[in-house]
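for the writeup, i need someone to sanity check this before i put it in the appendix. the sequnce is what the collaborator sent (i think, or maybe the updated version? ugh). structure was predicted straight from it, no edits. if anything looks off just tell me and ill rerun, i have time this weekend
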Amino acid sequence: MDKSVKPTESALKEALGDQYELWKAVRQRVIQVYPDGIEEWNFPGKKYGWSFRIRDKKRAILYLLPRLRGFVVAFVFGKRAYEAILDSDVSGPVKIELQQAKVYAEGRGIWIPVPDSSPLQDIFQLIDIKLAY
């Protein structure tokens, strides 16, 4: 949460504990599907702390938000991606959260907590959809 201390890989591993391998799996999936992904740490403010963003040249693909002993994956989807998600086999709870999300100029945003490997299938599908649109 300290802007003056940019996270290191070792600090991240220590903070995430067992979740570190899941964090790596999400990162690797994005880079596997989009090898030109640009990875960067960002500090949007004290309220949110540090976030790790993977982006293409124009937009963020996803955000990884570290928390003590866990992390959250955040996405913002435009209209076409939103419609593709509703037509996909992404789980019902993710679709409901996306439908209920406030609509901004950039699209609809959702946060998916990653307490274990159970949300990874949805996250991987959302990565694929995000990159397709």
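The helical segments are 9-16, 20-33, 79-86, 92-100, 120-132. The chain has one domain: 9-132.
thx in advance!!
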